[in-house]
User: What shape does this take?
Amino acid sequence: MVGEAGGLARAAVVGTGLIGGSVLFRLRDAGLDVAAWDPDPAARRQVRERGVAAPDEVEEAVAGRHVVFVCGPLPTLPATLARVAAATDDRCVLTDVGSVKAEVATAATAQGLGHRFVPGHPMAGADRAGLGAAAPELLDGAAWVLCPGPTGVDAFRRLAALLVDVFHARVVPMSAPEHDAAAALASHLPHLLAGALAGAVQRSALRDAVLALAAGSFSDGTRVAGGPPERTANMLLGNRDRVLAELIEVGAFLDELAGALRAGDAAALTGRLAEARTARAALRGRAFTSHRREFPAGADPAVELAYLRELGAAGGHLTGCRVAAGAVGYTAHLPATPPLG
Amino acid sequence: MVGEAGGLARAAVVGTGLIGGSVLFRLRDAGLDVAAWDPDPAARRQVRERGVAAPDEVEEAVAGRHVVFVCGPLPTLPATLARVAAATDDRCVLTDVGSVKAEVATAATAQGLGHRFVPGHPMAGADRAGLGAAAPELLDGAAWVLCPGPTGVDAFRRLAALLVDVFHARVVPMSAPEHDAAAALASHLPHLLAGALAGAVQRSALRDAVLALAAGSFSDGTRVAGGPPERTANMLLGNRDRVLAELIEVGAFLDELAGALRAGDAAALTGRLAEARTARAALRGRAFTSHRREFPAGADPAVELAYLRELGAAGGHLTGCRVAAGAVGYTAHLPATPPLG
Assistant: This one.
């Protein structure tokens, strides 16, 4: 049965919004025994109407579970985590799906949960929010970052096995600070730029004419500006220093483009645009080399952790994680020309 | 027969790249008598292989045509236009599909072509370039800007009728400078921001990790950075002053977002993001009111031109244009709460 590999056959989801609801229904469809809780009674009612147990108390929802996905808004995570931890067995794996990882990782470690909380971030989403927008297929095949700490390698293995089995996830192992640094460019800056572009149009005297002309480039470039402002603000505030640092880098490249444009320097402008296109082309046409890596029972978890983090930092991911009798076998993929090391 | 309304049954396309090729094959599929020319002999050969006449000389391709679409790179347009004009009848309607309009409009007027050259810009495209990427459906239903000058109203009517018939275009009438001002925000700034984001990632030490995490927001936000650098550079250079002016506005909004973020001011940040979302929501859920407007034979073209330009500036468009015995009837649509006037 799915979930058996990691021994996580009984799962709970706390917070049944867009991501939590999508996780919940996919776990249910995969045959796991699931329960859910949300602070909103209406959301709990909707969950029940879709055939999933949703008791009124979070403690009841998570009691006796092997794994709990904590899916509320970013600022609520440390408190929810403490409540869920207190109501679950010390073997129960805990994870979250927030878009920023260092803060919640630090909070969990301070709560003594480093051995069973594995910070997570599935790289998928939608402009809409809430259970109504949730869909079991939303996270299928997504890149799913997991950030195991020094004492969390065993929990990581079990969770990774579940994510690969149920979501066909590409599991990207990273340290929490590395995730936040990469996510600043991969997700948070795109939200900031989309907001700036849409905001400038909103204030422009030409607003209606601009919207009349808006085709692919504007529509794509501002899509995430259509998301809930609170959610985006929480994300940006949760990774403030990295976002501001990367904004300087993006601003520097923008200044170079604007400088070449101002000078009418076609060669310089084309050169910068060609440089930018390299990253975009790499995104579309990525080739990977695959390998298997095993860690026997009793091996030093620090070596395994170093391997995992190096894999993620190099742009790699896992599509297989087999746990048996204390040993683990990973199926891993690295970009074909990896600047590893 | 399609094209009869405007009397434009014989058409030519000069420059058979992504847009020109798409125009060509849609005109052919609609039953028009078409011919094409491209400076590249290989492109002419490919056109012939797809069953369209493509003589070796541009003069032969355009001779005797009722309408010619000039579709080459922006910097080549004035020279190509002069060559095409010299080889066509003075009644032959000329248009282009470039992404910037004021410069080519001025050049055409200087060449004495204001009465038959109607600057055009279909708001559609693709990251790829060239005839291989062309598709008859690429421009179906697109917003298609046309910029009639004071002496070009008759040519505008005939061309608009053709575009509505063949492409089901939403024809947006604007002055060339108004187009360039709106396109700066609707298209050129999105290209610039996409380039800055992709360029910063390309230079980042975290490049591979960022690409591993890149999901919707990055992928959408940088899509146009995957286009040909020369094409994007020509577009930006062709509308330099407006692009730089609007960059200041986008930069100002970005500074407000960054300021709120730096200050940790969640309310201010959420407020700015909510403001930005208003424009984005208006793009998705636009409602229009429709009306009919007729101009009888012998009416003052200046009145018609003023009507058309006001329609476009207010975010409106035409989906019908019926020409008969010197009169015209337009089917027009305006945003439901138009800030007209």
User: Anything to note?
Assistant: The first helix of chain B runs from residue 18 to 29. The CA atoms of residues 82 and 111 of chain B lie 7 Å apart. Chain B touches chain A through 105 residues (CB under 8 Å).
